Amino acid sequence: MLKPAPSQYLHTVRLERGEVPGFSEYPFNIPAVRHLDSLPLHPKVTFFVGENGSGKSTLLEAIAEKLGFSMEGGTKNTNMAMHEYRCALTSKITLSRTHLRPMDGFFLRAESYYNFATLIDELGTWSYGGKSLHEQSHGESFFATMIHRMGGHGIYLFDEPEAALSPQRQMSLLVRMHDLIDDFSQFIIATHSPILMAYPDAWIYQFSEDGIQRIAYEDTDHFQITSRFMRDPKGMIHRLLGTQEDRHAGGAETGGLR
């Protein structure tokens, strides 16, 4: 059994299956949730990957809410919610924590970042670089949060951060993540980005109809499909946009692009 690392704050996420009233309604009917028992977390970086609707963001939201973050994102100080959990999964999971307590934390969501930026404008922007997040591009404000608000010794949860970032910015994000990890931080990230999930030694969990399985980076659909496209972009475009026979031969109609 993996022992907690010196900088690890969360060790395991466990679904208390006996407390679930049934697995026929959302979100407990999602295969990844329905089959969930205990999920160990990497001391540094854990990735949740899978198609939209696979449950990766749902589980990440439940973890974030269990830690005390707002569902809209931000720090624990920006949690304006009442004491009731908004995610039905939250009350049914248990987080196994180490003896360490994080000094910092942030739940970063591309989907609701506009609402968070509005709240920061109301509260004051001094801790986010002194400039309104609304006066910057989506990617710039996202990255300003990484630089000015995340100080290390923390646990950071990101939900599809690549939605706000160019490929170049995604590589810059890897550098910033690495700096924070060197400063005793832990990340849990739901993503579609093959750039981000290339972080060395990270654990990648694939969410699918079969549940949740740990998978090697090179075995992810994200890596394989992107690699194939980059090796032969013209050929891939021809198969995707060609005749029905071309698409069938290339597997494009069913998404089988390997």
From TrEMBL:
Residue stretches making up the AAA+ ATPase domain: 42-226
Main location: membrane
Gene Ontology BP term (one): double-strand break repair
Pfam family, one: AAA_21
Key words of the record: Cell membrane, Ion transport, Iron, Iron transport, Membrane, Transport
Keyword Membrane recorded: yes
The organism's place on the tree of life at top rank: Bacteria
Protein's cellular compartments: Cell membrane
GO CC annotations, alphabetized: plasma membrane
Membrane topology: Peripheral membrane protein
GO molecular function: ATP hydrolysis activity
UniProt protein name: Putative ATPase
Organism encoding this protein: Prosthecobacter fusiformis
